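Re: your question from the hallway

Yes, I did run it. Sequences:
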Amino acid sequence: MSVNEHRPPPADKKFESLEYTDEHSRTFVFGDEDHTLGNSLRHVLMGRKETTFCGYSVPHPSEPKMNVRLQTSTSKTAVEVLKDGLHELVEICDLFDFTLDSAIAGYEAREKDAGAESKGQSKSV
Amino acid sequence: MATRVDSYLVEADQLYESYRSLSLEEAKTVVEHLRENLRIHIVKLDAEEMIFDLIGADASLANALRRILLAEVPTMAIETVHMFANSSILHDEVLAHRLGLIPIFADPAQFEYMPPGSSSEATEHNTLVFDMDISFQPPKSEESKNNNNTPPSALNAPTLSVFSNQLVWRPMGEQGVTLAEAPPRVVHSDILLAKLKPGQRIKVEGWCRKGVGKDHAKYSPVSTASYRLLPRVEIVEPITGEEAEGLVKLCPMNVFDIEDLGGRKGGGKKAVVNRPRDCTMCRECIREGPAVEKVKLKRVADHFIFSIESVGALSPERILKDAVNVLRHKCTVLLEAIEKEIAAGGGGGGEGGGR
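Structure:
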């Protein structure tokens, strides 16, 4: 019953698709999402060759909603390309994890070498 | 003296050269481009700070990572404070606010979020309890010095400072066993919480919950996380001789060096850019002086120098890994939601199904 317990309520729906007439041109509404996912998902979707148009917006900063407009060529439906884009973003996360692990291993190897070197030098005096 | 207008960004064409003059079939997806070009190079890594280079990624991905580091990686922090006694000068809510901001050393992965709704119960799986009970007993002074009829002044009274190390974890249920490896404590023991005068008392119970920075900044695992783009200092016309010497002296960050060419025209000295990473874009090199037209300041659009400063509850590399997991989790949750919505025949329209 304190001030802190008043939080903006979560969005009604996690995912919604607005009215459409064509399976290749659709607007999707994501609840509780913002530029974090919006811009990166847009970037990934733009790289897919079936995409003819892709944009995202946050209609109002006070509302936890994010719109993605996706138009595709006739080879795939918009929903399919959207799902492909999300799968690709997951792949990017996996790639990032892998690259990060190798980088940390590389850093630790370098640190160990540097430590061994300085020990070696002090010995040879 | 006309002022120059500089372009700070590398022209996008140079960046995406791989995409030019490619037919649709040859064009690469983002992940394909990343598999070839993504590099991470760690410059510094210790318990408090991590500096690394992220090369080959797009600004949208780097920014998504930064936003998640600040706002969506969970930690534990005091959320509810039960006040049993507070006769200090600080009001209850002020003291509670300060307690909430104290970083708590606990692994958020071992805890669940509180279920939404005001009637959710605090269990050993979602709550940590910290106690603090400080009373400042007035010292029993011998009456010798105080017998000159002057009333005791608050200015002369001793002060007891209450620090964060006075918070003591109270294991609940099985926590004594499950959290024995890394017992919860405060990260920093020297945070000043309140000051007490003789006779004052603070007795509180702080209940910690799992939360994210988006909800309240106290939950942010980083003191800050930021990135900058690697500067690119281009010398478009060779700078030699005395001009070169002058340029090297001008730069406050020693970005330039002199290369000796050995006694040719211009005195054999040429200015080169050896430490672009140190450049702060102060523009001293193009403000005035002989090299004004010969130096261009830009940034490399896909080389991000990240800095992650941890508050101390989690190590910087752990925070980064958690951030990537948060991004992955967002995608998988949405994929599920899409399946459900499509299966339920969601979205109006669909009549005709195409022109």
